């Protein structure tokens, strides 16, 4: 794998979670396993390492290594792998080879390879490169939005409405992210009501799924539950996902909390 950062080599397994943390042993039929744990039988994993895991790395990862990483993730059995981001190379140099990566990977049957597109220009570039699914991202923090994408939350929503309209016209599925769902590096705690409002707007414009991200990893099972309780009142459970960072060692506990609330993504 060459010099791929350690962070993107680690993959949490739902089966491992059940065996190591809940005491479910091998040989238990899936139906009985669900009865024992009270958890859903299937959990969908959306692997974002090739994009989110690499985008802030200071050392540029060679294009060939990125392609190899994605191919190995496909071979590992993952069904959704976010391959890259069609952003300006000026702002995210690590993603400058987005076209080469998307066109260079082996497309496995049954595997989806969405890409992140921050604006209409990025969307059209992604489609021209062969993308068949995209993602957009908005922040629940005004400060984070301005620092990360150089525009207000409202301005970003207007951009994404245009992107989603273009995608829907071409029957391209769109997944939405809400950053800073459990905390912001500039504003601290984020109230669940704000997360809910951003999630509602992304869902209303046509995102088929909303991923709620603990961007800086400060969430706890308690704050995860409070946030999900609020969002689940407005967004169908089947259209919600969580994205947890392990900055303070809480990711596994937060994922477990989400699964206990029947989040399956």
Using brief descriptors, characterize the structure shown:
single chain; 12% strand; six-stranded parallel β-sheet; disordered N terminus; TIM Barrel; two-stranded parallel ribbon; 11 helices; alpha/beta; 265 residues
Question: How would you describe the overall organization of this protein?
Answer:
Helices cover 42% and strands 12% of the residues. It is of the alpha/beta class. It has one domain: TIM Barrel (Alpha-Beta Barrel), CATH 3.20.20.70. The strands form 2 sheets. Strands 3-4-5-6-7-8 form a 6-stranded parallel beta sheet. The protein has a two-stranded parallel ribbon with strand order 1-2. Helix 9 packs across helix 10 (221-231). The chain starts with 13 loop residues before the first helix and ends in a 5-residue tail after the last helix.
């Amino acid at each position: 794998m060459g010099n791929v950062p350690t962070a993107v080599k680690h993959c949490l397994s739902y089966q491992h979670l059940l065996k190591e943390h809940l005491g479910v042993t091998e040989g238990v039929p899936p139906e009985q396993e669900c009865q024992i744990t009270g958890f859903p039988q299937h959990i969908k994993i959306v692997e974002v390492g090739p994009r989110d895991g690499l985008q802030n790395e200071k050392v540029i990862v060679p294009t060939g290594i990125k392609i190899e990483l994605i191919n190995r993730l496909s071979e590992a059995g993952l069904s959704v792998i976010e391959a890259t981001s069609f952003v300006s190379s000026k702002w995210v140099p690590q993603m400058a080879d987005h076209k080469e990566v998307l066109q260079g990977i082996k497309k496995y049957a049954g595997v989806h390879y969405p890409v992140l597109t921050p604006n209409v220009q990025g969307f059209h570039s992604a489609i021209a490169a062969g993308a068949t699914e995209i993602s957009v991202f908005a922040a629940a923090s005004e400060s984070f939005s301005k620092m990360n994408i150089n525009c207000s939350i409202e301005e970003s929503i207007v951009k994404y409405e245009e992107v989603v309209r273009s995608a829907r016209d071409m029957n391209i599925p769109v997944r939405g992210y809400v950053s800073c769902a459990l905390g912001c590096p500039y504003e601290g705690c984020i109230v669940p009501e704000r997360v809910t409002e951003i999630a509602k707007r992304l869902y209303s414009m046509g995102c088929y799924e909303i991923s709620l991200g603990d961007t800086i990893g400060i969430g706890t099972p308690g704050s995860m539950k409070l946030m999900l309780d609020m969002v689940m009142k407005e967004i169908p459970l089947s259209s919600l996902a969580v994205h947890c960072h392990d900055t303070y060692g809480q990711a596994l506990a937060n994922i477990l909390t989400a699964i206990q609330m029947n989040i399956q993504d």
